[in-house]
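<context>
A single protein, sequence plus fold
<entry> Chain with its tokenised backbone below
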Amino acid sequence: MNLQNRSLKLSAYLPSLLISIGLLIVLLLLKKWLSPGSVSYAFWYNFLSCVQLIILFFAIIHLAIVLLAKKLSAKKSLGVSIVAVLLLVSFLEVSAKYLLDHPHHIPKKFRHYFHVYYDGFDMAIFQYESQCSQYDSSLFYSMKPSGRFVFSNREYADSFYTDVNGFRDQRREFMPDIICLGDSYTMGYGVGQDHTIPANIERLTGLKALNTGMSSFGTARQVLTLAKRDFSQSQIIIWQYCENDWTENVKFIEDSFSFSPSSRKEFERLQQVNEWKQQYFPAKHSMTLLKMIVRGEFGLKGPDKFAKPISSGDQAENFLTIIEYCKDVIGEKKIVLYELGYYKPFSDFIRSVKTLLNGERFKHLADMVIPLDVFPSLTKEDYYILDVHIKAEGNRKVAAFMRSTIDQLVRRSFP
């Protein structure tokens, strides 16, 4: 009799199962129909995938209720299943949002997944935020000149003030003693105007330091930044390298030391992609994170779409090759070179630079380039949890680590 009742219940469950399967197939076809070149492709693909996951939840929960709740009619079991799915998804979404807003509560085991989610589906990208940046025909983009705006993400919200050249400095044009070149780490992603590495260097040394850092600029565009105004009287360059500079640097060298920016149309397309990336839909946080966790924990990761970085030795050689070629632009300035990026105990890049400067090929740059490994001065606590950038204290530590080297150069340059 029990077997017969169970068979009857399962037969009542069959229509909802078939509908669920049909919906899953329809959603799968819709995903294949999407155009990968569309600015909203990632948003809609993720949305459809999340709906598929919710339908799977429903099918599993409905089956469990049909089998376990013996006294419920088919209609009631369907209603209970829908309510259960809504409550479960709502709970997961509220929990996910809370953890994103309070990342220090994220269990360490799952922080990697939250970081990947934040990076790919939630984070505003500075260079594509319309209030922050603009198209630049020579550099692809630059900070808006004479700008006043706030740039924010989950873990920070900071005011930016830019000068007439689009540098993060609110003073009128002046001749700096120190030029600070770099990407978002130099620019001060995630810290206030007075807490950047250049601002700390200026406070510690008493010398005028200009922050010319711009998010995502590689060494090639950093060199071109020097041409934006007259720096002939500046004596020291504090030059920050990041591992992701390598792609830009390789292409710069392959193209005979020239940089060809993409079109204004491409810039505007990427701005739209950035806007779509931040768009929210119900259950986005929890369902996207759940997909990532399941794939990661069960070894179902897809192929890596990102190019593997070249070796630290090749990166160091490319950097020094660019410095060598652009020596006329740099002049006789001394370069304090350091690397910043993801946390690590030491910089293989800086070690490789030191080795190359001691070799025959680049020994003529040994008096010009002073490599410093700042990573030993930092800890994981100096980094944000979701964001890859360093907090205000990390910026202070990096500047303090470089102070003695700068002081030595000052005594030589400003006797």
